[in-house]
């Protein structure tokens, strides 16, 4: 009889935990749905095909990185132009689905033995830089796990806190994020991340916070945050050029001779 009672208690406990998890996931999903509606709705996201943006890092008022992106989201075609930390000028035409393509190094075709290395770097830039821009739109992707982490107050504003983790997807599946969704605007106005490279147990108190601000319609009703500012630091990541394009010449993805849409970075 004791074994039967113990087994019954264990089943009830497991069921209660499962119900709590299901409730947490459902509430998180509902908050994300409201946020996506505030950002223009799923229809705006689905209609967005060509996206042009510059990803810029600024530390202590000085530009530390400037990466130019052009994306055909329907076909996976991508164009990327950036300068390495060593000062090497790089340009890549590739497909994010196949990760194959071509690279220029200081204006010359990459050597065969180096090309894949640079293509891998280009794909990593696509993953990293686009996530800084599009993360709120990626929260319903396969493999993303959402949990409602409660309500919190910051600077007199109320936020729904969503814990984001991953089921072995992406380049860094051990990362954890906390999304702060303003209960009034329904926009994500802050994120905090605990990267898989960090030591210790992931927790929001140990995570690195950034403000997401300067939300705007960038074309077709799609709303994105143009600026991210690290809390307590003189550092920001911003997008001086950011727009959904109605169309792009196919040669922009086929030939380095075809210009990248938009102005070049200052000084070039």
Structure characteristics:
268 residues
Q: How would you characterize the overall build of this protein?
A:
The protein has 268 residues and is an alpha+beta fold. It folds into 2 domains: 23-44 and 135-242, no CATH class; 64-132 and 245-253. It is 25% helix and 38% strand. The chain contains 3 helices and 14 strands. The chain has helices at residues 2-38, 41-47, 112-134, and strands at 50-59, 62-72, 77-83, 89-95, 101-105, 108-109, 144-154, 157-166, 176-182, 188-194, 208-217, 223-230, 235-238, 242-245. Strands 1, 2, 3, 4, 5, 6, 7, 8, 9, 10, 11, 12, 13 and 14 form a 14-stranded antiparallel beta sheet that branches. The longest helix has 37 residues, at 2-38.
Using the alpha-carbon principal axes, give the shape: globular
Order of helices and strands: HHEEEEEEHEEEEEEEE
The amount of helix comes to: 25-40%
> Averaged pLDDT, please?
92
Beta-strand level of the residues, as a percent range?
A: 35-45%
Biggest pleated sheet: 14 strands, antiparallel
Rg from C-alpha positions?
A: 21 Å
Tally of helical segments: 3
Structural class: alpha+beta
Residue ranges: pLDDT <50 for 5 or more in a row?
14-20
Distance between the termini: 81 Å
The number of strands is 14
Count of spatially separate domains: 2
